[in-house]
Amino acid sequence: MSKKKVAVVLLSGGLDSCVTAAVAQRDFELALFHGNYGQRTVHRELRAFRELAVFFQTRHRLEAAMHFLKTIGGSSLTDDRLPIPEDLDDPPGLPLTYVPFRNTILLAAAVAWAEVIGASAIFIGANRIDSPGYPDCRPEYFEAYSRLIELGTGPNTHLEIHTPLIHLDKAGIVRLGLELHAPLELTWSCYQNEDRACGRCSSCRLRLRGFAQAGVKDPIPYEGDRP
Fold this sequence. Notes:
alpha/beta, 37% helix
């Protein structure tokens, strides 16, 4: 049997990135990348990332400090003065949770690492349906980024961006994760709590709706759950 090629997976510790890693693992050896950009729940997300790295038994993992994104601000995920939305549907325009140019910056760091370790693919759990207001979650954005990688890397680097969840809704992502036996219980999606998920922020509500539509209970703890 031939040795699997390496794929760098952007793994936040959330539901989507976990399922994306499970998809990538079918055909690639995983290299897991986590960007710490000063988000509110950074410690809980980092714990999820580390537990997922153990589950996937990866020998390649990188925790990148990117705190300048918090210094730049402009997002309720990095600026405590901005409220976390508690509505499932965002108002028109950019969502308050949009972190300016985040995917572009995270992908750039992941591509740099991929060049060094000789990876042949990049996986990211971007989703067009759940994030209609995020400009860096559109298929055409990733098409353009692929061209940037081609132009901006060495002649021996050949990286393909994979977005396996781009056209799935949250229920579809949950179903795919269950099908692949992904450890959804290790993931964390809440934007504002690090012990028990709030159940009120837009991320929690979207996640809860996805599990409900998939007909299964979300395995992580929420405020108000009975002990």
